[in-house]
């Protein structure tokens, strides 16, 4: 029987492996919310979501006090029905980041169960579009790093075979951003991909001005230049520059993505499985992007996005930011600058239960 008998919620704090600062914030810690769902036939599926320093206890409270109970006694195979049930049970707080993060923890656990029951890896059961995808690095491009370190990190990523790297922008002057990027471009050559990320720090006018400084450097994309709610500003920016505009990590619903795509305000979609509410809506966003002939390069969560990006035709890149090493025994396979999605049934993540117990805070 696939009836859900138990839902266990845990909160684990993971310290970042390096200092991570962008134009808007510093990555304090990764609050990792784990949800494990058990069924009457003895299967256990584990999913997760995250915050970068605040709000983890609020996500746990929503799960513990409201959402987990909606699944008890239900058939775990009815993933779409259960996602909708969770949404309706939180209608007064949806759509929003805390609700999306809570729903994502449960939805990814349900997909883990679904794949385990089928004996298939996530990337294949969810579509199986690509056997591998290129990887770009973000861990060496943080805003606080001096130019010399940016250059050395870029050269190291290129030497390791990665296909590109992302660099944080949003220094006080456009000239300073341009100086940093120009130094990197000179070091890695014209063929290697350079992406930039402003983390929602700019006005529309400033983003247009800075995009013009990026065009001669052949930047692969300009990520989150404006606050995510400013669809009109992203639309104006996209029309004013040849640099593709990338958005998605701070968008929490399928409908919001659809509005960006309909208005031509997104050249690359960076949907985040945790922040959009799970695998179920993630796939809807990815296929909507495909319908608009837009590629998908997911934000963060490389351990699960490697499988999801490979599942869909629109998959483009996987972002390299090591995230779960402290609480897992598995590691992604990267060959010739490409990630190879896990072949093991389920999400492909082998959790280290002893490490989770040591780092658990709730």
TrEMBL record:
One Pfam short name: MR_MLE_C
KW Metal-binding (keyword) present: yes
Alphabetically ordered keywords of this record: Magnesium, Metal-binding
Cited CDD domains: MR_like (cd03316)
Record domain Mandelate racemase/muconate lactonizing enzyme C-terminal: where: 147-244
Listed cofactors: Mg(2+)
GO-annotated biological processes: carbohydrate catabolic process
Gene Ontology molecular function, alphabetical: hydro-lyase activity; magnesium ion binding
Domain of life: Bacteria
Keyword Magnesium: yes
Protein name: Mandelate racemase
């Amino acid at each position: 029987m696939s009836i859900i008998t138990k839902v266990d919620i845990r909160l684990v704090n993971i310290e970042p492996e390096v200092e991570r600062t962008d134009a808007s914030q510093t990555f304090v810690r990764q609050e990792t919310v784990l949800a494990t769902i058990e069924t009457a036939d003895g299967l256990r599926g584990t999913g997760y979501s995250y915050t970068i320093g605040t709000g983890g206890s609020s996500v746990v409270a929503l799960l513990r006090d409201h959402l987990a109970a909606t699944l008890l006694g239900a058939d775990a195979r009815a993933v779409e029905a259960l996602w909708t049930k969770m949404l309706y049970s939180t209608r007064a707080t949806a759509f929003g980041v805390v609700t999306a993060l809570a729903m994502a923890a449960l939805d990814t656990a349900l997909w883990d169960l679904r794949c385990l029951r089928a004996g298939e890896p996530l990337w294949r059961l969810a579509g199986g579009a690509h056997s591998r995808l290129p990887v770009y690095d973000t861990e060496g491009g943080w805003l606080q790093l001096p130019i010399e370190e940016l250059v050395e990190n870029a050269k190291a990523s290129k030497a390791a075979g990665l296909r590109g790297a992302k660099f944080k922008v949003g220094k006080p002057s456009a000239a300073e951003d341009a100086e940093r990027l120009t130094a990197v471009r000179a070091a890695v050559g014209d063929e290697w991909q350079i992406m930039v990320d402003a983390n929602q720090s700019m006005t529309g006018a400033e983003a247009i001005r800075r995009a013009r400084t990026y065009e001669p450097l052949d930047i692969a994309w300009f990520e989150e230049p404006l606050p995510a709610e400013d669809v009109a500003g992203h639309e104006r920016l996209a029309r004013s520059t040849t640099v593709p505009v990338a958005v998605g990590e701070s968008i929490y619903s399928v409908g919001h993505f659809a509005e960006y795509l309909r208005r031509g305000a997104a050249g690359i979609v960076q949907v985040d499985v945790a922040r959009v509410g799970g695998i179920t809506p993630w796939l809807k966003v990815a296929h909507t992007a495909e319908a608009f002939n837009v590629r998908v390069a997911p934000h963060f969560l490389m351990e699960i996005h490697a499988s999801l990006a490979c599942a869909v035709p629109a998959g483009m890149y996987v972002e390299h930011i090591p995230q779960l090493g402290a609480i897992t025994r598995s590691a992604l396979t990267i060959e010739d600058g490409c990630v190879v999605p896990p072949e093991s049934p389920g999400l492909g993540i082998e959790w280290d239960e002893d490490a989770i117990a040591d780092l658990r805070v709730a």
